[in-house]
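Typical record is below.
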Amino acid sequence: MKTILIISGGTESIFGIKRAKELGYFVVVTDGDPNAPGFKYADDCILASTYDIEDTLKKVIKYDEVKRKINGVICIASDVPKTVAAISSYFNLISVPIETARICSDKYEMKKFFRLKNIPVPWFKEISSFEDLKNYVLNSNSQFVIKPVDSRGARGVLKITNKSDLADSYNYSLSFSNLGKVILEKFISGPQLSTESIIINKKIFHVAFADRNYEFLERFSPNIIENGGQLPSQLSPKIIKKTGILLEKVSKALNIENGILKGDIVIKKNEPLVIEVAPRLSGGYFSTHEIPMSTGVDLLGLALKQAMGELDKGIVVKPLKKNAIVQRYWFTNEGIVKRIDNIGRFSKLLNVEYLDIRVKIGDKIGPINSHPSRAGVVITSGLNIEKAKNLAEKIVKDLKIIVEK
């Protein structure tokens, strides 16, 4: 039995662990949390922080020498491509190059690289100090986004203007950067896409294009919090085609011969611009749930087989169907969770594909300032996007999480 190493034992990794076992692999999971949810589903575990590349590599080498040979490595819904690339490079496994992972792990380096390769991105600048930020923002009437170059899950990401408290915004965003660096970008108000593609033997296959939902920009301002999305995308086929061509250019520039490319794209005057990409499977239940539900493509299975060197290099990957799938989240007020109403009623409804309330009675709820702040998620299907959307939004409204201060 071959052994696959999955970097991160977070909640969403469980679906990948289960799929890997269905494929007949022995699954080893690494995580720095001894209580990582994925550990209880794995065949074996290694205790090491997913972000500590040296410690993870050292322990994996020892595991390979003493216990079992590692045949493949992957991360699922976890932003650790540098750790995956380091391990795959050492063991000569299939993954993206170390340099690709490095570029994609620093938002400033990524944007700078794309500009060099003539890949369209929103205007950006690395901010070296508070004075630097003031010089650019105070002298402009534009809207900007300030974000840490190395954070994830919308942590430290703020929409700002020359009317904002720039000192507070700068210090807040900077506090989420381990590298101590932030980047300033022009805010583009056009529609946004989440994309997922798989590259096989240098050929890119676009699996999914989903419309991102930012209906609560004002509610959570200055934080930028996404409230799910829907697929297939309702944008024009022409825009989708342009986005696909752009992603192909990105994959070639990044020298990805085999791997996954997750993209965040914004549309400006009918032209796609790259906000950022990641050489890994996406989180937020996109790769694990929404893609197979909507397209019929077993992206997890394909990625796992590819990591193990067992994917037919002549395979053609394309959506098998176009089911309407919508995802929405619960947002609560600050306080203590006192009651959760109607969860049993809605979780078994027809067209409710997945429902998870992440909080429990007694939990203390803080401010909504990043994606981990969301209290629950529901994924629905329907005859069309509108029907699936109406169902998802009705469930979020009627399944009440009662919070008291």
User: Anything to note?
Assistant: The two ends are 53 Å apart (CA to CA). The longest strand covers residues 203-212. The chain has a mean pLDDT of 95.
